[in-house]
């Protein structure tokens, strides 16, 4: 890993060049590098914690001066229970995942002795912009090397000392491996994000990990493709045939399990025929967890006799708002088609759910809703790479191309076509006199 | 199909809304629409040819006034041998391809009664900007409907009368099918491209089909992801162990089979050890086809005794130029590593080839070259969706995400995750006391 005070352009150029070497390394060579990083971090523990203590000291001063929030300081602290060990374990977990490089996904015999093969390969250079959590840097370096991609890392400034110490350890570890040192570049100079975002000739994919403001800023200021999501505005449609106890349990989990997460519920769409039957027990269960309901007039009227609720009149904006706290918008709809139309127009296309006993309606909903996750009778909180069994999560994408939903290592891959011939030329083939037809014979992928 | 004189924003909004219906239609419903389009065009033949004649008349006047090139007029002419019949056949060919919608590519049991499925689905709304060839509109409408995507079409103004007549026939045909009329929007108002490129809230993917200037303009002026390639700068590395006759044949085909194509050869990299043995016969074979060679000093010296060559001193810029005619740059390199470095820095990452008898060097080259097509002993001209057996070609992409190389219907698809549960909530699962682990059991794909 290089610690760069060089210009962003030089860092990106070096990363590109390293990516061409990294792409040719064997799985063993990449895995060995992850073992070396793990061991190097273990050996450098004291230095890293000393650096982290300096970050924490500066942060404490900034909090005292009212320039930083206490919650950010908590995220900086590497000594927080489990954080350091989880970081180390995460590197080995990524190492032990199946190799994503070199998977053959298509094999076609164009003619005898002329075989086409589609093979997965790294994208090239990733730009990863993240906030102040210091353990993220090791996690990202592991993901990049495992997937054969070079990476340029730009972290939040409050963790600079920790980042430098961690990346020194990673750099020293990589020196003993086949992974070129330039493959992971830490950019520590300030205010370089606009410059980095202009380097689309070197950088193939940008992955912002942080607030929706950060993601939105990056999407709006680069030609580099961006993988991620700005908002998580998830809806659940409560259909009249849903089981009441199941509905209450799933909605409570979706809303209250971790309200600040992008896969938490923000809007409940209630079928009018379910207002008097299903909504009251659901509302009571939510109230018991301290949830404020922003109701439209119909749902408010349906709840007038339920004691202990915290109801506020909803505004139109509430039905497309990411609250990220214990607030839930409640809107009445007359049919599945209305629910789908509201979701397709107002959700962030992250994860949306239908609660119903009808398989037919559920399948209609899952077919018609244009979101990365479409759920039937399950909490929106399941939208997560670890929960999906991907082993690791690069992020969650609401994009409509490349990768969508929780993204694992597969999302960091593209493919190339390899054609192996014996001197064949295009003029031999095609239609017309004296031309040969193509065989186009599907071959097993092995 | 709607003929829009409405604003681009209204056209895009209507396409988005139609895309949500189109995404839920069965394969039969989409295929029936293609049959209807085919039959409608057959029935409207006379009207369409009359409209095309009006386009041709205006074009002839423009040529006479020196405002248009004769080659463009030839592209406008629907009566040109085979064009009309090929257009009709193309619609039925696309109809008969395997359905790309609803393919299950992952199934995981998260827990008993909680099954995750990844299913291919349309991207949504495509913006397709193309030049004046009038038959392209039917081809694109067929691709869009087959893949379940809505499309906004903006064609070159010289074919406006033909486009309007063809789209009237398509529109009348679609009225009798389940495909909503708004699914295909033809925008005929002028100068609307900048407005269309700003509509990233409605348009999911832009596909420019035309000159590299058009592609570059679009890539530089939109936040919508763009599928395509601006340049086709393809290289071949001639290694010392290559068979001389094979090398000459492949290089001649790559350069001269259709010099204006994006998959034609623009640069030949010759290993120094092959200068006196392989280059002379290759150069003679190229000269026999009228190819001008732009040589570096070493290759020029190696060819000084070969009669009948057309040699010009190369400039540095020649080694990264798309000539699109019978010109070939020839550069000497000392090793495979040098060849790979030159290609990775100067090719357009479209298709690059090695000519060698060494399997080991070939595999090294194909692993290290960062291009969508990497070939061993085969003409670069094979880089084409039809030749690869994809049935149809949307375009060729040099992007590093989503789709790369020749793109068939698969390149117009994304996926969604469907999760079918029985009321499971996230709080039940994970590590810690009383929590259940996830099963993460791989299920067969059907």
Q: How is the secondary structure organized here?
A:
2 copies of one chain form a homodimer.
Chain A: E1 2-4, H1 8-22, H2 27-43, H3 45-64, H4 70-76, H5 83-95, E2 104-111, E3 114-122, E4 125-130, H6 136-146, E5 150-154, H7 160-174, E6 184-187, H8 193-197, E7 205-209, H9 212-220, E8 234-238, H10 244-256, E9 265-271, H11 279-288, E10 292-295, H12 297-302, E11 311-313, E12 327-333, H13 336-346, E13 351-355, H14 359-368, E14 373-378, H15 385-388, E15 395-397, E16 405-407, E17 413-424, E18 441-442
Parallel strand pairs in A: 1-6, 4-5, 4-7, 5-6, 8-9, 8-13, 9-12, 10-11, 10-12, 13-14
Antiparallel strand pairs in A: 2-3, 2-18, 3-17, 15-16
Helix pairs in contact in A: 2-5, 2-6, 2-7, 3-7, 5-6, 10-11
User: Can you say what the CATH homologous superfamily of the largest domain in chain A is?
Assistant: Aldehyde Dehydrogenase, Chain A, domain 1
- The overall strand count of chain A is 18
Which chains have the largest interface?
A: A-B, 72 and 72 residues
Q: Please give the radius of gyration of chain A in angstroms.
A: 26 Å
Strand order of the largest sheet of chain A: 11-10-12-9-8-13-14
How is the quaternary structure best described?
homodimer
The whole-number mean of residue pLDDT values of chain A reads 94
Tell me the number of structural domains of chain A.
Answer: 2
Query: What is the CATH topology of the largest domain in chain A?
Result: Aldehyde Dehydrogenase, Chain A, domain 1
CATH class category of the largest domain in chain A: Alpha Beta
Distance between the termini of chain A: 37 Å
Which CATH-level-2 architecture of the largest domain in chain A? 3-Layer(aba) Sandwich
Work out the helicity level of chain A: 25-40%
- The number of helical runs of chain A is 15
Q: State the low-pLDDT regions of chain A, or none.
A: none
| Overall spatial form of chain A | globular
- What is the SS-derived class of chain A? alpha/beta
């Amino acid at each position: 890993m290089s610690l760069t005070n060089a210009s962003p352009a030089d860092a990106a150029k070096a990363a590109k060049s390293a990516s061409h070497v990294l792409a040719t390394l064997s799985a063993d060579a990449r895995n060995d590098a992850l073992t070396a990083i793990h061991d190097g971090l273990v050996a450098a523990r004291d230095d890293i914690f000393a650096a982290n203590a300096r970050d924490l000291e500066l942060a404490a001063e900034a909090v005292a001066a009212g320039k930083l929030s206490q919650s950010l300081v908590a995220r900086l602290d590497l000594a927080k229970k489990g954080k350091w060990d989880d970081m180390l374990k995460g590197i080995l977990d990524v190492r032990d995942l199946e190799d994503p490089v070199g998977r053959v996904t298509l094999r076609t015999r164009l003619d005898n002795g002329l075989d086409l093969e589609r093979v997965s390969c790294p994208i090239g250079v990733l730009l990863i912009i993240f906030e102040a959590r210091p353990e993220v840097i090791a996690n990202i370096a592991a993901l990049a090397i495992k997937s054969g991609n070079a990476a340029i890392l730009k972290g939040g400034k409050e963790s600079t000392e920790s980042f430098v110490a961690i990346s020194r350890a990673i750099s020293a570890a990589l020196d003993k491996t086949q992974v070129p040192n330039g493959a992971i570049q830490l950019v520590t100079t300030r205010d370089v994000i606009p410059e980095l975002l202009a380097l689309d000739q070197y950088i193939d994919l940008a992955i912002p990990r942080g607030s929706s403001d950060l993601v939105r800023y990056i999407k709006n200021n680069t030609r580099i493709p961006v993988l991620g999501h700005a908002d998580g505005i998830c809806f659940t449609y409560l259909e009249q045939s849903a089981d009441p106890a199941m509905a209450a349990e799933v909605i409570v989990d979706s809303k209250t399990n971790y309200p600040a997460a992008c896969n938490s519920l923000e809007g409940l769409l209630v079928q009018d025929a379910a207002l008097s039957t299903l909504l009251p027990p659901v509302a009571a269960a939510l109230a018991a967890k301290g949830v404020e309901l922003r109701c439209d007039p119909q749902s408010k009227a349906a709840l007038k006799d339920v004691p202990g609720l915290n109801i506020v009149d909803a505004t139109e904006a509430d039905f497309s708002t990411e609250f990220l706290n214990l607030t839930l918008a409640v809107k009445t709809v007359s049919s599945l088609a209305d629910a789908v139309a509201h979701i397709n127009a107002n959700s962030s296309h992250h994860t949306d759910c239908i609660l119903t006993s009808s398989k037919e309606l559920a399948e209609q909903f899952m077919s018609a809703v244009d979101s990365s996750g479409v759920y039937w009778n399950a909490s929106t909180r399941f939208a997560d790479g670890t929960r999906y069994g991907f082993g690791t999560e690069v992020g969650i994408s609401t994009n409509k191309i490349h990768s969508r939903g929780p993204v694992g290592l597969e999302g960091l891959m593209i493919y190339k076509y390899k054609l192996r011939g014996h001197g064949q030329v295009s003029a031999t083939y095609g239609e017309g006199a004296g031309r040969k037809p193509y065989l186009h014979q599907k071959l097993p992928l092995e």
